Amino acid sequence: MRLSRAFQPMLKETPAEAQIVSHRLMLRAGLVRQTASGIYAWLPAGLRVLNNIARIVREEQDRIGAQEVLMPTLQSAELWKRSGRYDAYGPEMLRIRDRHERDLLYGPTNEEMITDLFGGAVKSYRELPQTLYHVQWKFRDEIRPRFGVMRGREFLMKDAYSFDSSYEGAVASYRRQMLAYLRSFQRMGVRAVPMVADTGPIGGDLSHEFLILAPTGESGVFYDASLEEQDWLAQSVDLDDEASLEAFFGRVTGSYAATDEMHDATKWETVPAERRREGRGIEVGHIFYFGTKYTESMGISVSGADGAPFFPQMGSYGVGISRLVGAIIEASHDDAGIIWPEQVAPWRAAILNLKPGDQATDAICETLYASAPDALVYDDRADRAGVKFNDADLMGHPLQLIVGPRGAAAGRVEVKRRATGERSEMSLDEALALIASGT
RNA sequence: CGGGGCGUGGCGCAGCCUGGUAGCGCGCUUGUUUUGGGUACAAGAGGCCCCCGGUUCGAGUCCGGGCGCCCCGACCA
Q1: For residue A121, how many other CB atoms are within 10 A of its CB?
Q2: Å between A52 CA and B8 C1'?
Q3: Which of these three, A292, A309, A338, is where a domain ends?
Q4: I need a surface site. Which of A54, A76, A88, A355 has the fewest CB within 10 A?
Q5: How many structural domains are present in chain A?
């Protein structure tokens, strides 16, 4: 993208409504614009980040055998009356009436719809297990939206739903999701620690929240350092083997981790002092097992091996995709702006042309840009160098390829790494290789 | 939903108390200048002062009603 033609309205001053750092930076960097309280329009750069996050989540869901579908945003009230939640959900649900006076709602979640879809198609235990997911906009009419996209009313979420014929199968599905989550967040370049969550009336240990560690997080967190030391991508877990899944699950849940509501000071004492980590976290994912709650209430059963019908066991697994954009910024920024982790950055690198019009400088910039036009943003604007440095820092591109007449005359490109501030000078060919390698 | 605040060019704000026909900084346009960390000067463009009603000779300003947005709390992916 050439910045001179990009729809990327950057702000020098912070809009009054933005309080927290991620909200301020998202507005200043031109990632989003608010259109109503808690509702945002995503501009090109912000959308690229959103899509990057969704892409990682999809790849990890696909990897564990979940299948993507796409359910609508609007749902019939009838569906929710069957589960009993239409009346139970409360004013957070946005209710709508169509021209025929039929009651609809803008979905805050999709358990009812997926259960109904599943039940309409699957009739035998032989077709289980199944895990279906989708990435869709949801709406919850929060009393008080705030924190930009982190607590919006409309938000993009990945939600997955597993159907199994036994409790043991449901547990395996749950553990596969846990692995997918740990891998997803690690790939996004952030640390998200799974914490035991309140399981409510169902009980058991099959409910975890994933919190990204950030000083501005809404919950206090306590966890064993081993949870942030593990490389989940390197672990070999056999997704089809229950023993392997169990061993993996043990490695995760064997270490203490809890939010302040669930914190157990006595157990905390058993963690060696040097491995105790305390901080704050932002919830970006939640996985839980809920058994036959919906299959039963909605009368969705399948035939078992003995010919008798039974209610499949379900679990549900959510990731706040749009919230993650804000949460990642909360976890990764400095005074100058955003510091995007590689994998989610809107562009891999920015090319800063310090003197548009200078023949040698333009030539090098154009060569760099042409090597990967979709992965690079080229600051070819007729602005001063200082403006470009500041905007590039604000936008948080992992790499800045700085080209000015001084270096260009010698065929040199200066590379600045946003995360460390480290600078190095290299030849054009070396810079091209760097772009191609993506690191 | 309780408490508080705000709504004035694109953004940040002043003006309102004490009514007299709208101003500042940034941004934008043009020119000159500058050219490796938000350059300087000059000349410009741009405003239904959130909306409706009332008081008044006259309302951005006072009064009433509405709408929108933000902050604290309770609540939450």
Answers
A1: 9
A2: 40
A3: A338
A4: A88
A5: 2
